Amino acid sequence: MALVIEVLDTTLSYDRNVKLPRYAAAGVPEVWIVDLEGSKIGIHTEPSAGGYEAFDESERGEEVRSRNVEGLSAVVDEVLG
Description:
By secondary structure, this protein is an alpha+beta fold. It contains 2 helices and 6 strands.
């Protein structure tokens, strides 16, 4: 598995505190959290035993690019609608 994309509108705390550590422990190399309420996309990379070592966040008007899937990119506005 190269990438997981979580789309959420109310479960940000659960996704960050429960799901992210599980994905990291499973070795998922990249997780995008699409925060509909906050109008942001967070990209977590570099999984380790303690979670993800790298994090980048993009807002409306910006573009996100996968670090692990070549050619995968999106404008945040298009993803959020």
